[in-house]
C-alpha cells in the first residue's frame, strides 16, 4: 500500500494519514428543501434572503472519520494557508497526503505547503471524487427550511 511505503521511506516511525479537503459556505440565506403536507395543501416555508455567511474549511480521513474543521470569513489563498498551517500543527509529528480540488485558492503559487502535508490534486470539475462533499451534505441537511436570526444562531444550529 502506498501509505505503508511512505511511512517506510519518507516518514520513518511516523504515521501517514490520507485526508480529503474542501470548504463549504454557510449563511443566513435559507436552504430550501421538500416539505411534506396534506394532499392539496400548498407548502409554505419562510425564507430569509440575508447574505451574511462564513466558510468552514475541513479535512476528513474517509477510513476513520477523523476530521479537522476551522471557520474563516472568506474563501481565499490567505485563509487556505492559515488552514494548512493549523492542520500541520494538529498533525504534530505525523504526515498527511491531502486530496484537494484545483480551486484557485488551493493551487496559488503563494501557498507555502507545510513539510508534513503533501498535496494530491484531484481532476478538475470532479467533486464526486472527494468524500468530504458527503460530510458537507450531511451537515447542511439539518439546515433545510431553517431560519437563523444571526450567524451565531447558525453556528449553534450546526454544532
UniProtKB/TrEMBL annotation:
Pfam families: DDE_3. InterPro entries: RNaseH-like_sf (IPR012337), RNaseH_sf (IPR036397), Tc1-like_DDE_dom (IPR038717), Transpos_IS630-like (IPR047655). Residues 18-155 form the Tc1-like transposase DDE domain. One of its GO terms (molecular function) is nucleic acid binding. This is Tc1-like transposase DDE domain-containing protein.
